[in-house]
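Subject: Nitric-oxide reductase large subunit

B.,
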Amino acid sequence: MKYKKLWLGFIAVIVGSFAVLGYYGSEIYRKAPPIPEKVVTASGKVLFTAQDIKDGQNVWQSTGGQELGSIWGHGAYVAPDWSADWLHKEAMFHLDSWAQQEKGKTYEDLDEETQAMLRARLQKQIRANTYDPETGELKISDLRAEAIANVGKHYTGLFMDDPSLAKHRDAYAMKENTVSDPERMRKLNAFFFWTSWACVTERPGQKITYTNNWPAEKLVANEPSSDLIIWTGFSVIILIAGVGLLAYYYASNREEEIDTSKLPKQDPLLGLQATPSMKATLKYFWIVTALILVQVTFGVVTAHYGVEGQALYGFPLADYLPYSISRTWHVQLAIFWIATSWLATGLYIAPAVSGHEPKFQRLGVNFLFICLLIIVAGSLAGQWYGVMQKLGYGENFWFGHQGYEYVDLGRFWQIFLLVGLVLWLTLMVRAIVPAFKNDAEGRHLLGMFLISSAAIAIFYASGLMWGQHTNLAIAEYWRWWVVHLWVEGFFEVFATVVIAFLFVRMGLLDTKMATGTVLFSTIIFLFGGIIGTFHHLYFSGTPTSVMALGATFSALEVVPLVLIGFEAYHNLEISRATLWLKAYKWPIYSFIAVAFWNLVGAGVFGFVINPPIALYYMQGLNTTPVHGHTALFGVYGMLGIGLMLFVLKGLSARRRWKDGVISFAFWSINIGLMLMVLISVLPIGLLQTWASVEYGLWYARSMEFMQTDTMEVLRWLRVIGDTIFAGGVLALGWFVIGLKTGWSLEEDEDLSFEDYPSAQRSKTAAGK
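Prediction pasted inline below.
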C-alpha cells in the first residue's frame, strides 16, 4: 500500500468529519430547547425564572446528576428518568383532573372512548409551543401550573425526607435529604419541569418535540417519528454494504500464514536495558492495580444498592456513601486506571523505541505521577463534598461534582488533568523525536504514534467547552466529545499504534505491514467513529439532521468490528509461533480478549442499541450498561491489563512467570464479565425494553416494575458473575504484587533467556 495515499485518506477523514461535526454542532447551539426568561400562568403568576432553571440544573448536578437517575435517558438506571417520570405524572394530573370534573371518576375508571377524548385534548394543549422568543416568556394554563405544583410536591417529599415516600427512596437508592434546602428543591423542580417540557413541546413549525418525540409516552402522543424509522432502515443497509465491502477487501488482501522461519529465534527485548524513566513507570502500575481493586469494590457496592437501596446488608451505608457517590467513583476510577495504564505504557515505550533518555525525563515521569495522585484523591473527595450538599453552586462546579457521567470531576480537576496530559505529551515527544533520525523506515508509524498521543492530550480539552449554566443540550454535545471521541476514539487509535509498536519491536510484524495496517485501520475506524458521535445525541434536544448522521455513521463504526475475529486469530497464531513467545502469553491473550470484546461488546451489544428505533425504546435502560461494561472493561480495561503485563514483563527479572494465578485471573475476569451480562443485566434490559414499548419509559424505570419478584431475582443473579469477576481481579492484584515479592515467579529463567547469546545474557543479568 502507498503511504502517501493512506496519509491523504487519513487527513481527508479528519478534516471532513470534524467539519461535519462542527457545522451540526452549531445547529445544536442554534436549535437547542430554549430556556424561558419566565414561566408564566394564564392568570399572570410567575412560576419560574431562567435563573431558577439554571440554578436547578446546578442543584441536580450537586446531587450526582447523571449518577442518580437520568435526564433525557442519559445517566444511572436505578432511580427514574426524571424527565420521563415528570412528564407522565404531569399528564396523569391533567387527565385525572378533567375526569373528576366531568365524570366524577379517575381517568383509569373511564370508558375507552372518553379516555381517548381526554387524551386528544391533553395532546393538543400540552404539545403546543407557547414559548415567545420575542419576550422570552413561556405561558402555561392555570391547570398546568397546578400539575407542576402537584408533581413538585411529590419530588420535594422524595428528595427530602417525607416518611410516606421512604419506600420509593429505598427503591431508587436515594438517601434521606438528598436535597436538604427547600429553596434548592424548588429550583430543582424548575429544572425537572424544563427537561420534561422539552420532551413534549413541538419545535416551531414541526410535529416533533425538541427531543424528537422521546420518551415513549402514549398519553401525550410521543411516538417514533417517520424520520426515526427511515434512518433506522438506512443504517441497516449501510451496515450490510460496509460489511460486504470490508469482507471483499480482506478476501483480496489476505495475509499469508505466519512463516515461523522468519521470526526471531530469541526474544529481541531481552537485550533491552530499561532507562531510569522506564523503570520509574513501575509505580504507575502499582497504582493501576490498586485502583482496579478499589474500582471493583465500588462496583460491588453500587450493584448491591440495586437490591438494598440505602444499606449494605443492614448497615446504613447511604448516610456516608450514597449510591450516586459509589457509582461516580466506580465510573471515574475506571477511567483513571485505564488511562494511567495506557499513559504509563507510552512513557515506557517512547525511550525504548528511540534508545534516547532525555535529560530530566525521570523527574518528569515522577512529577506526573504525583500530579496523578493529587487529581485522583482531590477529585473524588470533591465529589463526595458536592453530593453531601456541603458546597455552593459555584464551589460545586469548580471543585465538586459536575453531574455529567464520565466527566463528573469538578472544573478545577478537569483543568489540572488537562495540564497533566500536556505534560505527558511533552515527555512523549522529547523521548520519541530522536527515533525519527534513526529509524527512517518506521517514521510513518512513529508519526502516527505522536499524532495519537497528541489527540489524547488535546481532545480532553473539549470537556472545558461548557460552563456552569450551559444549556443541557449543548453540554451533552461537548460531553460526548470527551466520552466518545476521547475515550472511544483516539484512545482506540493510540491502542492500535501501541500494539503495532510492540509487535514490530518483537520482530513479529514487518514495519511496512504494521504501518500500512495501522493507517488503514485508523481511517476505517475514524470514518465512522467521529461523526458516529451523534448516535448518542438522537434525543438530547438536537435537530433531526443529527439523527440522520448518527444513524448512518454509527452503523459504519460497527463494520470494522464485524471482521475483528481475523485480528484475534492472528494474535493467537503469533502467541504459538515460537517457543520464546510463551513468556508473553498473558499479554497476548489479553490482546485476544480485547478483540473478542470489541466484536461482542462494542460490535454486537453496541449495535443492538445504536439504530434510532432501538435506542428510542432502549435509551436509559439496562441494555446500555450491557454495552458499557463489555466495551469499557472488556475492550479498554483488558487492553490496559495487557499493556501493564507487557511492561511488567520487561521490567521484572527474567524469571519465568507462574501460570496458575494469572491464568485464574484472566479466565475469571472474562467469564465473570460475560456471566454478569448474560444472566442478569441483559435480561433486565430486555424486560425493560418490553415494558418501554408496551407502556412507556416511565414504567420501565418505575418502582412498580423494577421491584417485582422477577426483577429482584435477576438482580441477585448478578452475584454469580460479579463474584467470579471480583475473584479474578483479586487474583490479578495478588499476581502483580507477587512479581515484586517473588511468589509469582518460578525459580528457573525463561526458556527464551536460556537460548539468548551467553555474552549478552551475562550483560543483561549483571544489569539486573
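Residues 753-768 have pLDDT under 50 and may be disordered.

T.
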